[in-house]
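Quarterly update, task 2.4: glyceraldehyde-3-phosphate-bound model.
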Amino acid sequence: MRAEDPRLTTLSPETAATGLLPQLAHARNPGMALDLDWVAGVQANTSAIERRCATLGGRRSVKKDWQAAWLLKAISLIDLTTLSGDDTPGRVERLCAKARQPVRPDMLAALGMTGLTVGAVCVYHDMVETAVRCLEGSNIPVAAVSTGFPAGLSPWRLRLAEIGESVKAGAKEIDIVISRRHVLTGNWQALYDEMREMRAACGEAHVKAILATGELQTLRNVARASLVCMMAGADFIKTSTGKEAVNATLPVTLTMIRAIRDYQDRTGHKVGYKPAGGISKAKDALLYLALMKDELGAPWLQPDLMRFGASSLLGDIERQLEHHLTGAYSAGYRHALA
Ligand SMILES: O=C[C@H](O)COP(=O)(O)O
Protein backbone atom coordinates (compact mmCIF):
# COMPACT_ATOMS: atom_id res chain seq x y z
CA MET A 1 0.00 0.00 0.00
CA ARG A 2 1.42 3.38 -0.94
CA ALA A 3 1.00 6.18 1.56
CA GLU A 4 -1.26 8.03 -0.86
CA ASP A 5 -3.52 5.04 -1.45
CA PRO A 6 -6.95 6.56 -0.69
CA ARG A 7 -8.29 3.23 0.54
CA LEU A 8 -5.96 3.18 3.47
CA THR A 9 -4.78 6.70 4.15
CA THR A 10 -8.07 7.75 5.71
CA LEU A 11 -6.52 6.38 8.89
CA SER A 12 -3.89 9.08 9.13
CA PRO A 13 -1.78 9.49 12.25
CA GLU A 14 -3.92 12.52 13.10
CA THR A 15 -7.22 10.71 12.75
CA ALA A 16 -6.06 7.54 14.44
CA ALA A 17 -6.97 8.90 17.86
CA THR A 18 -10.49 9.72 16.70
CA GLY A 19 -10.79 6.26 15.20
CA LEU A 20 -10.01 4.77 18.56
CA LEU A 21 -12.76 6.52 20.46
CA PRO A 22 -15.53 4.20 21.64
CA GLN A 23 -18.02 3.78 18.83
CA LEU A 24 -21.77 3.80 19.02
CA ALA A 25 -22.65 0.15 19.08
CA HIS A 26 -24.62 -1.01 16.05
CA ALA A 27 -27.73 -3.11 16.61
CA ARG A 28 -26.98 -6.77 17.34
CA ASN A 29 -27.52 -9.29 14.58
CA PRO A 30 -30.94 -10.79 15.40
CA GLY A 31 -30.43 -13.66 12.94
CA MET A 32 -33.13 -15.00 10.63
CA ALA A 33 -34.84 -18.25 9.71
CA LEU A 34 -32.51 -20.85 8.25
CA ASP A 35 -32.56 -20.45 4.46
CA LEU A 36 -31.26 -23.75 3.10
CA ASP A 37 -31.50 -22.62 -0.54
CA TRP A 38 -29.21 -19.71 0.19
CA VAL A 39 -26.78 -22.00 2.02
CA ALA A 40 -26.77 -24.55 -0.81
CA GLY A 41 -26.07 -21.80 -3.35
CA VAL A 42 -22.91 -20.59 -1.58
CA GLN A 43 -19.70 -21.42 -3.42
CA ALA A 44 -16.06 -20.47 -2.87
CA ASN A 45 -13.59 -20.24 -5.75
CA THR A 46 -10.54 -21.53 -3.90
CA SER A 47 -7.91 -20.81 -6.55
CA ALA A 48 -9.17 -17.25 -7.13
CA ILE A 49 -9.26 -16.61 -3.37
CA GLU A 50 -5.75 -18.00 -2.89
CA ARG A 51 -4.42 -15.96 -5.83
CA ARG A 52 -5.85 -12.74 -4.44
CA CYS A 53 -4.37 -13.41 -1.01
CA ALA A 54 -0.97 -14.46 -2.33
CA THR A 55 -0.43 -11.04 -3.93
CA LEU A 56 -1.82 -8.99 -1.06
CA GLY A 57 1.52 -8.56 0.71
CA GLY A 58 3.16 -7.14 -2.43
CA ARG A 59 0.35 -4.69 -3.07
CA ARG A 60 -0.14 -3.55 0.49
CA SER A 61 2.64 -2.02 2.52
CA VAL A 62 2.38 1.02 4.72
CA LYS A 63 5.30 3.00 6.11
CA LYS A 64 6.39 5.45 8.80
CA ASP A 65 3.68 7.46 10.61
CA TRP A 66 0.99 5.70 8.64
CA GLN A 67 2.26 2.34 9.75
CA ALA A 68 2.40 3.47 13.37
CA ALA A 69 -1.21 4.68 13.15
CA TRP A 70 -2.34 1.35 11.72
CA LEU A 71 -0.43 -0.54 14.40
CA LEU A 72 -2.13 1.48 17.14
CA LYS A 73 -5.42 0.67 15.47
CA ALA A 74 -4.49 -3.04 15.50
CA ILE A 75 -3.77 -2.88 19.24
CA SER A 76 -7.24 -1.45 19.90
CA LEU A 77 -8.69 -4.52 18.16
CA ILE A 78 -6.78 -7.22 20.02
CA ASP A 79 -8.58 -9.72 22.22
CA LEU A 80 -5.55 -10.17 24.44
CA THR A 81 -5.61 -13.86 25.13
CA THR A 82 -4.24 -16.48 27.45
CA LEU A 83 -5.67 -19.97 27.02
CA SER A 84 -3.23 -22.34 28.64
CA GLY A 85 -3.65 -25.19 31.05
CA ASP A 86 -1.09 -23.54 33.31
CA ASP A 87 -2.84 -20.13 33.49
CA THR A 88 -2.75 -18.66 36.98
CA PRO A 89 -4.44 -15.64 38.55
CA GLY A 90 -1.03 -13.94 38.54
CA ARG A 91 -0.64 -14.39 34.79
CA VAL A 92 -4.15 -13.07 34.17
CA GLU A 93 -3.49 -10.07 36.44
CA ARG A 94 -0.39 -9.21 34.41
CA LEU A 95 -2.32 -9.68 31.19
CA CYS A 96 -5.04 -7.32 32.39
CA ALA A 97 -2.48 -4.69 33.38
CA LYS A 98 -1.11 -4.98 29.86
CA ALA A 99 -4.64 -4.71 28.42
CA ARG A 100 -5.14 -1.41 30.24
CA GLN A 101 -1.77 -0.05 29.15
CA PRO A 102 -0.67 -1.97 26.05
CA VAL A 103 2.08 0.50 25.10
CA ARG A 104 4.58 2.26 27.38
CA PRO A 105 3.18 5.70 28.28
CA ASP A 106 6.29 7.56 27.01
CA MET A 107 6.02 5.77 23.67
CA LEU A 108 2.31 6.45 23.46
CA ALA A 109 2.88 10.13 24.22
CA ALA A 110 5.58 10.32 21.54
CA LEU A 111 3.04 8.86 19.11
CA GLY A 112 0.49 11.53 20.08
CA MET A 113 -1.97 9.06 21.52
CA THR A 114 -3.70 8.72 24.88
CA GLY A 115 -6.13 6.27 26.40
CA LEU A 116 -5.26 3.31 24.19
CA THR A 117 -6.44 -0.11 25.42
CA VAL A 118 -6.91 -3.48 23.77
CA GLY A 119 -10.38 -4.62 22.62
CA ALA A 120 -10.92 -7.30 25.27
CA VAL A 121 -9.20 -9.89 27.43
CA CYS A 122 -9.95 -13.49 26.50
CA VAL A 123 -9.60 -16.32 29.05
CA TYR A 124 -10.98 -19.69 30.12
CA HIS A 125 -14.00 -19.67 32.44
CA ASP A 126 -11.92 -20.25 35.57
CA MET A 127 -10.09 -16.98 35.02
CA VAL A 128 -13.13 -14.81 34.24
CA GLU A 129 -13.62 -13.54 37.79
CA THR A 130 -9.97 -12.57 38.13
CA ALA A 131 -10.02 -10.74 34.81
CA VAL A 132 -13.27 -8.94 35.60
CA ARG A 133 -11.84 -7.77 38.93
CA CYS A 134 -8.59 -6.57 37.35
CA LEU A 135 -10.36 -4.69 34.57
CA GLU A 136 -12.92 -2.97 36.77
CA GLY A 137 -13.54 0.61 35.69
CA SER A 138 -11.64 0.19 32.43
CA ASN A 139 -14.51 -0.58 30.02
CA ILE A 140 -12.45 -3.46 28.67
CA PRO A 141 -14.77 -6.47 28.35
CA VAL A 142 -13.82 -9.97 29.37
CA ALA A 143 -14.40 -12.71 26.79
CA ALA A 144 -14.68 -16.34 27.90
CA VAL A 145 -14.08 -19.31 25.64
CA SER A 146 -16.91 -21.69 26.25
CA THR A 147 -18.90 -24.81 25.25
CA GLY A 148 -16.16 -27.36 25.77
CA PHE A 149 -13.45 -25.28 24.11
CA PRO A 150 -11.51 -26.19 22.00
CA ALA A 151 -13.14 -29.42 20.71
CA GLY A 152 -16.75 -28.61 21.62
CA LEU A 153 -17.52 -32.23 22.38
CA SER A 154 -18.68 -32.12 25.99
CA PRO A 155 -22.33 -33.01 26.77
CA TRP A 156 -24.74 -30.49 25.29
CA ARG A 157 -26.35 -29.43 28.56
CA LEU A 158 -22.90 -28.83 30.07
CA ARG A 159 -21.93 -26.68 27.12
CA LEU A 160 -24.98 -24.49 27.67
CA ALA A 161 -24.41 -24.45 31.43
CA GLU A 162 -20.82 -23.33 30.86
CA ILE A 163 -22.05 -20.28 28.94
CA GLY A 164 -24.40 -19.41 31.81
CA GLU A 165 -21.61 -19.74 34.39
CA SER A 166 -19.28 -17.44 32.45
CA VAL A 167 -21.99 -14.83 31.95
CA LYS A 168 -22.75 -15.02 35.69
CA ALA A 169 -19.07 -14.51 36.45
CA GLY A 170 -19.09 -11.29 34.43
CA ALA A 171 -18.04 -12.22 30.90
CA LYS A 172 -19.51 -9.78 28.40
CA GLU A 173 -18.47 -11.82 25.41
CA ILE A 174 -18.65 -15.58 24.91
CA ASP A 175 -16.54 -17.34 22.30
CA ILE A 176 -18.34 -20.62 21.57
CA VAL A 177 -17.06 -23.48 19.43
CA ILE A 178 -19.33 -25.05 16.84
CA SER A 179 -19.69 -28.81 16.28
CA ARG A 180 -17.44 -29.39 13.28
CA ARG A 181 -19.24 -32.65 12.48
CA HIS A 182 -22.42 -30.73 11.59
CA VAL A 183 -20.46 -28.94 8.89
CA LEU A 184 -18.60 -32.02 7.71
CA THR A 185 -21.87 -33.94 7.33
CA GLY A 186 -23.75 -30.98 5.84
CA ASN A 187 -26.25 -30.98 8.70
CA TRP A 188 -26.99 -27.24 8.50
CA GLN A 189 -30.19 -27.52 10.50
CA ALA A 190 -28.26 -29.00 13.44
CA LEU A 191 -25.61 -26.29 13.22
CA TYR A 192 -28.29 -23.61 13.08
CA ASP A 193 -30.21 -25.03 16.04
CA GLU A 194 -27.05 -25.41 18.11
CA MET A 195 -25.92 -21.87 17.38
CA ARG A 196 -29.36 -20.46 18.07
CA GLU A 197 -29.52 -22.11 21.50
CA MET A 198 -26.01 -21.00 22.40
CA ARG A 199 -26.83 -17.42 21.44
CA ALA A 200 -29.94 -17.55 23.63
CA ALA A 201 -27.86 -18.88 26.54
CA CYS A 202 -25.53 -15.87 26.18
CA GLY A 203 -28.37 -13.41 26.85
CA GLU A 204 -26.98 -9.89 26.64
CA ALA A 205 -23.41 -11.12 26.26
CA HIS A 206 -22.20 -11.00 22.67
CA VAL A 207 -21.47 -14.34 21.06
CA LYS A 208 -18.55 -15.14 18.79
CA ALA A 209 -18.90 -18.37 16.79
CA ILE A 210 -15.57 -20.17 16.42
CA LEU A 211 -15.69 -22.22 13.24
CA ALA A 212 -12.33 -24.01 13.68
CA THR A 213 -11.81 -23.49 9.95
CA GLY A 214 -8.66 -25.63 9.89
CA GLU A 215 -10.94 -28.63 10.49
CA LEU A 216 -13.66 -27.79 7.97
CA GLN A 217 -11.80 -29.20 4.92
CA THR A 218 -12.94 -26.73 2.22
CA LEU A 219 -13.45 -23.00 1.82
CA ARG A 220 -16.98 -23.77 0.62
CA ASN A 221 -17.68 -25.38 4.00
CA VAL A 222 -16.18 -22.32 5.69
CA ALA A 223 -18.45 -20.01 3.69
CA ARG A 224 -21.56 -22.10 4.37
CA ALA A 225 -20.83 -22.49 8.09
CA SER A 226 -20.23 -18.73 8.34
CA LEU A 227 -23.59 -18.04 6.77
CA VAL A 228 -25.49 -20.52 8.96
CA CYS A 229 -23.95 -19.10 12.14
CA MET A 230 -24.91 -15.58 11.07
CA MET A 231 -28.46 -16.72 10.26
CA ALA A 232 -28.59 -18.16 13.79
CA GLY A 233 -27.62 -14.79 15.28
CA ALA A 234 -23.84 -14.83 15.81
CA ASP A 235 -22.50 -11.37 16.69
CA PHE A 236 -19.05 -12.33 15.40
CA ILE A 237 -17.67 -15.20 13.38
CA LYS A 238 -14.19 -16.28 14.41
CA THR A 239 -11.77 -18.48 12.51
CA SER A 240 -10.08 -20.71 15.07
CA THR A 241 -9.46 -21.71 18.64
CA GLY A 242 -5.70 -21.35 18.21
CA LYS A 243 -5.45 -25.09 18.97
CA GLU A 244 -6.08 -26.49 15.46
CA ALA A 245 -3.19 -27.53 13.24
CA VAL A 246 -4.08 -24.64 10.89
CA ASN A 247 -5.54 -21.49 12.38
CA ALA A 248 -6.27 -18.04 10.88
CA THR A 249 -5.21 -17.58 7.24
CA LEU A 250 -5.85 -14.90 4.65
CA PRO A 251 -7.85 -17.19 2.29
CA VAL A 252 -10.14 -18.21 5.14
CA THR A 253 -10.45 -14.54 6.07
CA LEU A 254 -11.42 -13.49 2.56
CA THR A 255 -14.01 -16.28 2.47
CA MET A 256 -15.52 -15.35 5.82
CA ILE A 257 -15.60 -11.60 5.31
CA ARG A 258 -17.24 -12.03 1.90
CA ALA A 259 -19.90 -14.10 3.68
CA ILE A 260 -20.30 -11.22 6.15
CA ARG A 261 -20.68 -8.78 3.24
CA ASP A 262 -23.29 -10.96 1.52
CA TYR A 263 -25.20 -11.37 4.76
CA GLN A 264 -25.25 -7.63 5.30
CA ASP A 265 -26.28 -6.96 1.69
CA ARG A 266 -29.27 -9.29 2.03
CA THR A 267 -30.35 -8.67 5.63
CA GLY A 268 -28.93 -5.27 6.57
CA HIS A 269 -27.30 -6.79 9.69
CA LYS A 270 -23.63 -6.26 10.50
CA VAL A 271 -21.61 -9.19 11.87
CA GLY A 272 -18.09 -8.86 13.25
CA TYR A 273 -15.00 -10.83 12.28
CA LYS A 274 -12.27 -12.27 14.49
CA PRO A 275 -9.24 -13.97 12.97
CA ALA A 276 -7.54 -15.93 15.74
CA GLY A 277 -4.63 -18.27 16.21
CA GLY A 278 -1.10 -17.85 14.94
CA ILE A 279 -1.27 -14.10 14.26
CA SER A 280 1.90 -12.98 15.99
CA LYS A 281 3.54 -10.49 13.60
CA ALA A 282 2.69 -6.82 13.18
CA LYS A 283 3.06 -7.07 9.39
CA ASP A 284 0.45 -9.86 9.29
CA ALA A 285 -1.98 -7.77 11.33
CA LEU A 286 -1.58 -4.98 8.76
CA LEU A 287 -2.52 -7.36 5.95
CA TYR A 288 -5.66 -8.44 7.78
CA LEU A 289 -6.63 -4.80 8.31
CA ALA A 290 -6.02 -3.96 4.65
CA LEU A 291 -8.22 -6.86 3.58
CA MET A 292 -10.98 -5.83 5.98
CA LYS A 293 -10.92 -2.26 4.71
CA ASP A 294 -10.92 -3.35 1.06
CA GLU A 295 -13.76 -5.82 1.43
CA LEU A 296 -15.96 -4.39 4.17
CA GLY A 297 -14.92 -0.75 4.62
CA ALA A 298 -14.08 1.46 7.58
CA PRO A 299 -16.95 0.38 9.90
CA TRP A 300 -15.23 -3.01 10.20
CA LEU A 301 -12.08 -1.45 11.63
CA GLN A 302 -13.70 -0.76 14.99
CA PRO A 303 -13.69 -3.04 18.05
CA ASP A 304 -17.42 -3.71 17.77
CA LEU A 305 -16.87 -5.39 14.39
CA MET A 306 -13.25 -6.55 14.29
CA ARG A 307 -10.94 -8.30 16.74
CA PHE A 308 -7.69 -10.15 16.56
CA GLY A 309 -7.57 -13.23 18.80
CA ALA A 310 -3.91 -13.23 19.74
CA SER A 311 -1.63 -14.07 22.63
CA SER A 312 1.67 -12.76 21.27
CA LEU A 313 0.85 -10.15 18.59
CA LEU A 314 1.05 -7.21 20.96
CA GLY A 315 4.71 -7.86 21.75
CA ASP A 316 5.72 -7.64 18.09
CA ILE A 317 3.63 -4.52 17.53
CA GLU A 318 5.37 -2.86 20.48
CA ARG A 319 8.75 -3.75 18.98
CA GLN A 320 7.77 -2.17 15.66
CA LEU A 321 6.48 0.97 17.37
CA GLU A 322 9.70 1.26 19.34
CA HIS A 323 11.67 0.88 16.12
CA HIS A 324 9.52 3.59 14.54
CA LEU A 325 10.34 5.96 17.39
CA THR A 326 14.00 5.13 18.05
CA GLY A 327 15.28 3.47 14.88
CA ALA A 328 16.37 0.44 16.91
CA TYR A 329 14.76 -2.92 17.58
CA SER A 330 14.59 -4.10 21.17
CA ALA A 331 15.03 -7.76 21.99
CA GLY A 332 11.85 -9.83 21.85
CA TYR A 333 12.21 -10.91 25.48
CA ARG A 334 11.70 -7.30 26.59
CA HIS A 335 8.13 -7.68 25.39
CA ALA A 336 7.67 -11.21 26.60
CA LEU A 337 4.15 -10.75 27.92
CA ALA A 338 1.73 -10.68 24.99
O1 LIG B 1 -8.48 -16.96 20.36
C1 LIG B 1 -7.31 -16.77 20.41
C2 LIG B 1 -6.25 -17.75 20.16
O2 LIG B 1 -6.38 -18.85 20.99
C3 LIG B 1 -4.90 -17.15 20.31
O3 LIG B 1 -4.01 -17.90 19.55
P1 LIG B 1 -2.43 -17.58 19.58
O4 LIG B 1 -1.95 -18.02 20.93
O5 LIG B 1 -1.89 -18.42 18.47
O6 LIG B 1 -2.22 -16.13 19.35
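Highlight for this quarter: Residues 1-10, 13-24 have pLDDT under 50 and may be disordered.
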